[in-house]
Amino acid sequence: MNDQTALITGASSGIGFELARCFARDDYRVVLVARHLDELKEAARLLHQEFEGIDIVLLPFDLSLPDTPDKLYAETTARGLQIDALVNDAGFGETGYFSDTDVDTEMAIIQVNVAAVVHLTKLYLRDMVARNAGRILQVGSIASFTPSPCQAVYAATKAFVLSFTEAVQHELKQQHSAVTMTVLCPPPTDTNFFRTAHAENTRAAQHPASAREVAEEGYDTLMEGGARSLPTMGAKVNFFTSLLLPDSMLATIMNNQLHPAHR
């Protein structure tokens, strides 16, 4: 063990699990956070199978509940766990016209994708700044750069993550802190996202990137202290397109991507 601990939210599957795998490979103790204990146990089984002797802590917490970040921080503190790397990966979306979608679902999206990210970052960043050491990875999206009709709330939350991260990155430089913060902006990726968002049949879901490839590129950027990771050529193309085209055209492109593939 290298005596460092990484806490990863949304760690039971997808990009979160693959990021946990990256930390485990480098002998971090990994604290896996997700809603369902049975899914966390399966993730731990897979990690133990690949990395014998790795130290894994399972914490089933529901980040859609406003008091969860405080409870999670209290739990890691009570266990004597110093969090050297925080990964805010947990997040989900919903697909459909905003006038038709469910407001309770969208408020939960905002709670998980925005409020929990801010709250957890606040709690663990204070300790990192006090120690003058630590890393934080915020998982955004290529949707961070574009308005996305039919996923209006989800895309707005990811735009928030990008803006929030870049602002705090600047603050850390102003404080001459050794703590680093990185934003990972993946393209459509082979995870449970599209199923949860009821978007399995959309054009965007047809040729997803590998969750492992996305996670490994994001992890490398985090370890290098980089500000932003655009994993895969697809993410880079989407980003540069967002710089060249007006928002109205970008919205039309995204709208087309979130309609059924057979149309």
UniProtKB/TrEMBL annotation:
Pfam families the UniProt entry points to: adh_short
UniProt keyword RNA-binding present: no
Domain of life: Bacteria
Leader peptide range in chain numbering: none
UniProt keyword annotations, A-Z: Oxidoreductase
UniProt cross-references to InterPro entries, sorted A to Z: NAD(P)-bd_dom_sf, Sc_DH/Rdtase_CS, SDR_fam
Alphabetical list of SUPFAM superfamilies matching this protein: NAD(P)-binding Rossmann-fold domains
Family: Belongs to the short-chain dehydrogenases/reductases (SDR) family.
Protein name: SDR family oxidoreductase
Source organism per UniProt: Hymenobacter jeongseonensis
